[in-house]
Structures are given as structure tokens and as C-alpha cells.
Amino acid sequence: MAIVNPISVSELTRKIKWALAGQEFQNVAVEGEVSNFVHHSSGHMYFSLKDDQSRIKAVMFRSRNQKLGFVPQNGETLIAVGSLGVYEPNGEYQLYVDLLLPRGIGDLHLAFEQLKAKLEGEGLFANERKRPIPFLPHRVGVITSPTGAAIRDILQVLQRRHPGVQVLVFPALVQGEGAPTSLIQALQRAQTTDIDVLIMGRGGGSFEELSAFNDEALARAMAQCSIPIVSAVGHETDFTIADFVADLRAPTPSAAAELVVPKQGDLLAMVARLDQRLKTATTRHLAGERRYLARLTQGVALQQPQLVIRRWRQRVDELWTSLGHHQRYDLELKRAQLGNFAGKLETLSPLSTLSRGYSICQDAQGQVIRQANQVEVGGMVQIRLHEGELVCQVKGREQS
User: What's the pTM value of the predicted model, to 2 decimals?
Assistant: First the structure.
């Protein structure tokens, strides 16, 4: 036996987890008897599904089991729809349940629940991707059977509520084997026209008769449609995959027509109310402006403008006089400061010192001599007096 490089337990577990993540083990339906059921305080449900030969652990998280209309009991046989995965800390594979159904449910119902769980997991039902319905569409498209009661109900309601709206009908099969393809083709034709919103649906029927609206291809075509869609399939208690994918669900075709267009009478009444509010606001504004204009025209400035002019002329004269006084005062202050500075300069000036009998002795280079040893005997010095200068030769020197 050849020796292979060993791997860690964690790495082996991850490899098993990746293998189970394949499409084959996603969205599977498993029938078995419930055992070891625990409804944890966190809200999660832990249990096992078993038959006479095998057992598998399962978990249904709180976000999923909140939609259950019953609490599973040990010993019950149920159908669990979900995906297979690995709980890595224990190295155990288990079923992550999205949906629990009682045993005996029909194949169509089971397929419906499986498709619903799959598309919901992909985000096709998310509110974030749904588009708002136009408030007042000009052109409404209708996808339904041209001979059914639904088209008559829709047209009657649209005509009654808003006679001016344009309606384009895109005929399609709504029942039978070719119905999903026919609905998709009608949806594609509608997107080549200039319409604001689409109504797609049919009248009531059995679950099997409504199955065309539970088709996966139709659901994906609706999700990719560039026009907002209102789904109107069957009666209020009927739910189809198309209802969950559509931008808005209507309980009946007639209700869809009511949701799509507002009543013309309601719009006219609203316009009348807005018109009256505008008139009232305009009248109130004009009255305020008139009162303001009256105050202006009755004021002194317009009644006797010469009084205002005289008052301002007097004010200008006062300011001019005050400015003259201020300038003269400032000038005198500056002159006094200048005299003070000149006196200080005069006191500190060397010329003032010379006038008192002192003199300044400099060498031939003009440097002031402060010590006797700065000049040699026989050297020449220049002595500056208060009046005039003397050029002398040093005959001797004495250091103090």
C-alpha cells in the first residue's frame, strides 16, 4: 500500500463540506420520522429524521421555523426540504431545513414549496428589488387569456376608474402544458412596447389549474422584466410563485385594476382642493403685501421726503464738524509727541555733549579713541570740537 501525505482532521472535514455543497445536495426533500426533537430557547429546532434503516440529524433555524403553522412532535412523519451540510466542530453532516411539510402532501404542493424555498434563498422575493407602481400610468399592459372573465373584470374596472387610460392586452394561455411558455412570450412582447405597468394573472381555479404561475422559468422572466408587474392570480386565498416575485400582489384581477390606476373623480377632487389652497395662499400673500405697501406709502419718507432729506443733511453736517474737531485734536497730539521725541533725541545727541566743552578723538581711520593704547606715539589723531576740528600728533601717552 502506497504511503500518502496525511491531512488534518479539519482539512478533511472541509473537503467533505465542499463536496456536499454541490447542487445534488441542495434543495432536497427528505421524508422521515421525527425523533429527539428539541425546541431550543434560542428559537432553533434540533431533531433527527429516521426510517427503519438510517438516521440523519437536522436543524431548522429560528428564521425558518417562525413560518411554521405547527410544532413538530416526536413520532410524526414529515417531509423536510433543505440542504445538506457539515457541522465542522463535530465533523457531522446534517440537514439544514428550510421547510417542513406533513406527509401526504401532493407532488405539486411539494414542488411548489421546494421552488419557493429555492427562489427565496436566491433573493427573488426580496423587497429591495421590487419597484414602485406608477401613481398615474398612461398605458397599462395586461397579460391574460383574451376570453376569460379576468380580462373583462380588469377592463371594466379600468374604464370605470379612469376612462382616459390606454390598455394593451397581450393574449396568453393561463392554463395547461404550454401556458408558462405562452406567458413568458407575452411578457417579452410587452417589454418591446411603451407601457408603464403590467397586470398579469387569471381568474380563480384549483391549485393544479394555477400551476402555470408556479413555473420557475416564468418567475425568473418576471424578475428580469423592465416593467413593474402586478400579479393577480385567482382569489384572495390563492398564492403562487408569481405573486412572490411580482412587484405587487393583488388578491384578484379586479383588485389589480384598482391598485394600478386611481379614480379620476378622486384626482379631480384632489386638484380642486389644491387649486383652492393655492388661491387662498395667493390671496393671503397679496393681502400681506398690500398692507406692507400701505405702511410704506403712509410713512414720512414718501409723504414728506424733504423732512427726511433735511434730517440727513443735518446729520452729515454734524459728522463733518465732528470729523474736523477730531482731525485737529489728533494733529495737535501728534505734534506734541513729535516735540517730545525731538527733545529726547537732542538730549542724547553727541553734538549736545560737544556744546558743553567735550570733544571726540578719532584715529586716522575715523575710529573713536577710547583708550590711550589705541594710538602710537607720533601717530596722528583728529579731535572734533563743538565748532571745528583739530589735527594733532601724539607726542606721548599716559595710561590711567
Answer: 0.53
